[in-house]
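Input.
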Amino acid sequence: MSTDLTGALEARGIRLTAARRVILDTLVAGGDHVTADELTDLVRRRSTTIGRMTVYRTLELLCDLGLLRPVYQGSGAAHYILLHDGHHHHLICSACGQVIEFDECALGDLPARIAGRHGFRVEGHLLELYGVCAGCGDAAGEG
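Output.
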């Protein structure tokens, strides 16, 4: 995925500095749902010369380019997620807060149809479905 991000930046004419390369590699290695502070700590373990503001500016750049999205799942701090192929999907338990990621995208042409009605161009999507996980449902006698 780091090569995907690298390619996406280069395709847009964005200079890939050594610091950005470390941040991208760390972001991909650290997985999704990382806060800016968590990413900064991970980056600083790899390179003590990269400052917090460089990490924050890189996150902002990736968000502006549609490669990354901040999500707020009740914790207060934004967790950044990579948009794989322009989309990302979650099941979120309303009882315990568990987040389950899934890859299947059964939306088909729905985003394009909705966008067309509103003169909008879709660049990606984040789908979050809220409900009760199996563990909480079983605990409540619903399973």
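The mean pLDDT is 83.
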